[in-house]
Design brief:
The complex is a heterodimer. By secondary structure, chain A is α+β, with helices and mostly antiparallel strands. Chain A contains ten helices and 14 strands. Chain A has two domains: about 110 residues, Uridine Diphospho-n-acetylenolpyruvylglucosamine Reductase, domain 3, CATH 3.30.465.10; about 100 residues, Enolase-like, domain 1, CATH 3.30.390. By secondary structure, chain B is of the alpha+beta class. Chain B is about 30% helix and about 15% strand. Classes of the chains: A alpha+beta, B alpha+beta. The structure holds flavin-adenine dinucleotide and FE2/S2 (inorganic) cluster (2 copies).
Chain lengths: ~260, ~160
């Protein structure tokens, strides 16, 4: 790994100031450390977000729950369970216990890995990403594989989730990486159903409008009968072909609906 | 280089670090605590698991300076005060939960974190919790038996 300086501010204001001149944020490091070991990232300065109390924790807000940007997956799995069980269950399925003790929601959605779990919950819930400068709707935030609406030096400070009536995540685990080969998040709100798919597309997480319409009419696995997605833009690798992933989108969406009950 | 201090196995310690010094290197090279093993160095295998403020983490995937001041427990901290094997370690020996022993420090630390959270896990919970700890030798069954035994429960049959 190339050498760099690590700074660990205690307030968000100090972190924002430290990031102003080209430094990079470090949260759980569960993605960034391996990337730096491969010399795919070479920051001169890393600004750790792990010592900032205002970025930690799960709490109830006016319109749902608010999760601090540097909250580890294990904390969300435990503390979000009473407010939003579908989201807590997703957090509890990320990686393994040691990864969940370090990895954070802000790091996950800033990275926007096409096979990551959180992007499906954020898009599938219609959550709002709060940064140090603005609020971004999930529909405007995920711009493609490893791409987001975040500007240079912008920090995810929190994610606000509206709480649906029912929701569940169904993940087909890729056992070597423990990421999703395909994962489907479904959420039923009073005004309709949202469906977000991760792991499948070369463009990262996406919504499936036909499935949303069918499930809004009838929230049952049968409602999805006959619905398919084209394999054109699906990821193809040694773990699964594009056609296989396209097929799994339907299967996992059905399983998510069944799990949501 | 700067001096980074923390508490390791109950003792106040410090060692020289750079920003890029991993917690695993701090423990092994800085403090000579070579019980923490490096299997993959890519966050996949779990051989390097230690506890930071009571939580299991992969020490190859944490910077030492990022956990300055923390309370760290390594495999060297798992033995009893008189030097005899701790309960989990003894159970690994009794149930042949190791062969080459390379994964064992991480297995023991992850098992200890599990039992702290959930003192009487089911066999399925043990298997699920140890998902991030890879063993090339044992085929896992004897590891699961050891953890069940360490929790004072019946050991699953063959
Ligand atoms: C063995 C293993 C298994 C895993 N399995 C899964 C899985 O099943 N599902 C899954 O979704 N993920 C999985 N992950 C990834 C894990 O969830 C990571 O923790 C997560 O993707 C990144 O979060 P982090 O806090 O570690 O971020 P870091 O690694 O610290 O940072 C990642 C990137 O985000 C930037 N960043 C960090 N925080 C912020 C912020 N608040 N604002 C703006 N930018 C920020 C960093 O600069 C960096 O570019 C796995 C990882 C490992 C090692
Ligand atoms: S050496 Fe840390 S996970 Fe393998
Ligand atoms: S005992 Fe050899 S790797 Fe587990």
């Amino acid at each position: 790994m190339h050498s760099f300086e690590l700074v660990k501010p205690k307030t968000l204001a100090d972190a924002v100031a430290a990031l102003a001149d080209g430094a990079q944020a470090l949260s759980g490091g569960q993605t960034l450390l391996p990337t730096m070991k491969q010399r795919l990232a070479d920051p001169g300065t890393l600004v750790s977000l792990t010592g900032i109390p205002e970025l930690q924790g799960v709490c109830q807000g006016d319109a749902g729950i608010i999760i601090g940007g540097a909250t580890p997956h294990a904390v969300v799995a435990r503390e979000a369970a009473k407010y939003y069980p579908g989201l807590a269950a997703l957090a509890g399925q990320i990686g393994d216990p040691a990864v969940r003790n370090r990895g954070t929601i802000g790091g996950s959605i800033a990275n926007n890995d096409p096979s990551a779990c959180y992007p499906a919950a954020v898009l599938g819930s219609g959550a709002t990403i709060v940064t140090n400068t603005r609020e971004i709707a999930a529909d405007d935030y995920f711009l493609g594989m490893f791409e987001t609406a975040l500007e240079e030096g912008e920090i995810v400070t929190a994610v606000k989730f509206p709480v649906p009536q029912k929701a569940a995540y169904a993940k087909f685990v890729q056992p070597a990486s423990r990421f999703a080969l395909v994962g489907a998040f479904v959420a039923q709100f009073a005004d309709g159903v949202r469906v977000a798919i991760t792991g499948a597309s070369n463009n990262g997480v996406f919504r499936w409008p036909e499935a949303e319409a069918a499930l809004s009419a009838s929230f049952t696995p049968e409602a999805l009968k006959g619905l398919t997605l084209p394999a054109d833009d699906m990821i193809a690798d040694l773990h699964g072909s594009a056609e296989y992933r396209a097929h799994l989108c339907g299967v996992m969406t059905k399983r998510a609906v069944m799990a949501a009950g | 280089m700067t001096k980074t201090s923390m508490t390791v196995n109950g003792k106040a310690v410090s060692a020289e670090t750079e920003g890029r010094t991993l917690l695993s290197a701090y423990l092994r090279e800085g403090l000579g605590l070579t019980g923490t093993h490096i299997g993959c160095d890519t966050s996949q295998c779990g051989a390097c698991v230690v506890h930071v403020d009571g939580k299991a983490v992969k020490s190859c995937s944490v910077f030492a300076q990022d956990v300055e001041g923390a309370d760290v427990t390594t495999i060297e901290g798992m033995a009893n005060a008189d030097g005899s094997l701790g309960t989990i370690q003894q159970a690994f020996q009794d149930h042949h939960g190791l062969q080459c022993g390379f994964c064992t420090p991480g297995m023991v630390m992850s098992s200890a974190a599990l039992l702290a959270e959930n003192p009487t896990p089911t066999e399925a919970e043990v298997r699920h919790y140890l998902e991030g700890n890879i063993c090339r030798c044992t085929g896992y069954h004897n590891i699961v038996k050891a953890v069940m035994a360490a929790s004072g429960q019946a050991v699953p049959a063959e």
